[in-house]
Design a protein that fits this description.
The structure is a homodimer.
Chain A (H helix, E strand, L loop, with lengths): L12 H8 L3 H9 L6 H14 L5 H8 L4 E6 L5 H16 L3 E6 L4 H11 L5 E5 L5 H10 L2 E4 L7 E6 L1 H13 L4 E6 L4 H17 L3 E6 L5 H13 L4 E4 L2 H13 L9 E6 L11 E4 L2 H16 L8 E5 L2 E2 L34
Parallel strand pairs in A: 1-2, 1-3, 3-4, 4-5, 5-11, 6-7, 6-8, 8-9, 9-10
Antiparallel strand pairs in A: 10-12
Chain B binds a DNA duplex (16 and 16 nucleotides) through helix 2 and helix 4.
Protein name (chains A, B): LacI family transcriptional regulator
Pfam families (chains A, B): LacI, Peripla_BP_3
GO molecular function (chains A, B): DNA-binding transcription factor activity; transcription cis-regulatory region binding
Chain lengths: ~350, ~350
DNA sequence: CTGAAAGCGCTTACAG
DNA sequence: CTGAAAGCGCTTACAG
């Protein structure tokens, strides 16, 4: 038996049993089912355990019971504020309920997602899979082996938490219409296909209802740069307001506008989504709150609650995101001031941005 | 034996051995030490394993070998861009080297940090502990049980990765001095005591070297609000530039200035640190690059390389952060324009900010 | 209420 | 090169 590297031997249940003058079974029960023991016994055992620095070995327990006490959270990009907030909520909730959390960052790739799911399977009791990039059959394959709860993906028969931002986007379009905007754009990204599609649809429908013209723009992977690169296209399209798939892209759009000497909301209005960084941008973004942390916590609850049932979790849990109005939305500029969509003379744009519609 | 909830029975080594007509030992070796077997045997075993869908059970392997193939990353706040970038680098590197990563968010508390370290100990081969809040004796206690690499904390005899931002801050002070600033402030936070202390010292020394007056301000927990709340104090102190412990605080300072109708860098210069969000703020922040992702990856390497040695990692690995100049720093305003430090008439500050120096 | 014993699924000296 | 067997540290029917 090699011992774990660089490690002092840890006290085991056996040592505690000896020292306390009881059997291993009793020590075990003192930790896992103390109600089966007399309070005196429990106290004695726990006391000597504490004195020896004994902690039940989760690995051994897992092998014996088949339950690991772990879950894994797989997501496309921890650096994205939506996911880091989600992770925070998920990890905290898991900890609260006695579970430890593995983290897997798939770097926005389906392949890595698949690998992560496979490698971690034996070490967890279930997965929370946020905004999966994996195709449906593969997700179902994994879900057949281990309980899975997905976030922001519609998969009948698999437990899921859906953040419904459609009402928020609908409200945002209403806000813009009320402010006099007549031509708006939705800037989406394939990243969160389900989320982005949902938002695009809400904007399109609400736009129609208000008699607005709505342009659809695809920004590619959602990022600050992608948002900035859209701006030329937005201006060329002659819109006066843009709703972005998330706040990162929205902030990029504002940066692109600023580079061209355009002010927000004076010359152009911008709406974001997620509401994590929205309060910290300049100007603070009007944004649809996506309740990220709550989505993470709810997914964990759904997963953990499912462990008690024979069948895996299967229902869907919908969270509604509401519009938070800040300073990036304002009255439509006077028609003449935006007639051509041409940037003013003092444009600061360094690149002619060939990739505005990549 | 209860089975893991909602799970189909998984094939074990025993079944594979039967089907392949070999012993369990041979199956085991086919996976872990195939060089001990004839190629034919290996092929036969791996073939039937594949056919049966057998995958070695990591938990059983861990119990037997004492090596889990897991590490844990403990940090104060995943929502902070510094840590999410760090985590990204650490997780990717661990994955590359065949390790899975547990995530523990201590919510900036020493107590949770201690709990996390204890709970996870049996399930990991080692820890990466970023900017620990725990006091030294407790860190050493944990480090005595499992290999630990700390990030941004000076602990003799424990493996550590230190991001040395002092040169960057020194350069930033030089930049400001060159731009004509005579009175500057360092806005620190207890959060990352080691980091913040290091930065404070660098600013103080460089300030003295350049003949500047340097005010030290404590912002409390590093956050956007904390930064904003500092502004009144900064203006009252009569400084024309501030260097913040990180970009989040720096962005908050810029927001507080904007609320008072002051422009950056026209009326006031701001420098941040970390350089994750710095390029996305408005205006883009001059910032000291902290190489977050690299720090995370290096810490993982240091930890994993240590597993091969008898003694735990003990050296320190220093990464140097360099100054990145963007648009938040500019010439000192003309003396008269900032004489009183009183905000202009059209101040937008809603609150009189009683807690500017909490 | 408590204990003796089998078993969870692997790995690894020890033989051959 | 391969196998029989002990052991990793727990948990849990089964007795008492």
């Amino acid at each position: 038996m090699t011992r774990p590297p660089n490690t002092k031997p840890t006290p085991t249940i056996r040592l505690v049993a000896q020292e306390a003058g009881v059997s291993q079974a009793t020590v075990s029960r003192a930790f896992s089912q103390p109600e089966l023991l007399t309070p005196a016994t429990v106290e004695k055992v726990l006391g000597t355990a504490l004195r020896l620095g004994y902690v039940p070995n989760q690995v051994a327990r897992a092998l014996s019971t088949g339950r690991t006490g772990n879950i894994a959270l797989i997501l496309p990009d921890v650096a994205n504020p939506f996911f880091s907030a989600l992770m925070r909520g998920a990890q905290a909730q898991a900890y609260k309920r006695g579970y430890a959390t593995f983290l897997g960052d798939s770097d926005e790739t389906a392949h890595l997602e698949d690998m992560l799911l496979g490698k971690l399977a034996a070490q967890v009791d279930g997965f929370v899979l946020a905004s999966p990039r994996l195709d449906e059959p593969l997700i179902r394959k994994h879900a057949a082996r281990k309980p899975v709860v997905v976030i922001n993906r519609e998969l009948e028969g698999i437990g899921r938490v859906l953040v419904d931002t459609a009402p928020g986007f609908t409200a945002a379009v209403g806000l813009l219409a009320g402010l006099g905007h007549r031509a708006i754009a939705y800037v989406g990204a394939p990243r969160s296909s389900w989320s982005s599609q949902q938002r695009a649809r809400a904007v399109a429908q609400a736009g129609t209802a208000h008699g607005l013209s709505v342009a659809q723009v695809d920004a590619g992977r959602p990022s600050h740069e992608a948002g900035r690169d859209c701006v030329a296209g937005l201006l060329a399209a002659g819109v006066t307001a843009a709703l972005a798939v998330d706040d990162v892209v929205a902030q990029g759009i504002m940066a692109g506008l600023a580079e061209r000497g355009l002010s927000v909301p004076g010359d152009f209005s911008v709406v974001g989504c997620d509401d994590i960084i929205a309060a910290t941008t300049y100007p603070p973004l009007t944004s649809v709150n996506a309740r990220c942390a709550r989505a993470g916590a709810n997914a964990v609850d759904l997963l953990l609650n499912g462990f008690a049932n024979p069948a895996p979790p299967t229902g869907s849990h919908v969270i509604t995101g509401e519009l938070v109005i800040r300073s990036s939305t304002g009255p439509a500029p006077a028609p003449d001031s935006r007639a051509s969509g041409t940037p003013p003379a003092e444009t600061g744009a360094a690149t002619p941005d060939p990739s505005s519609r990549k």
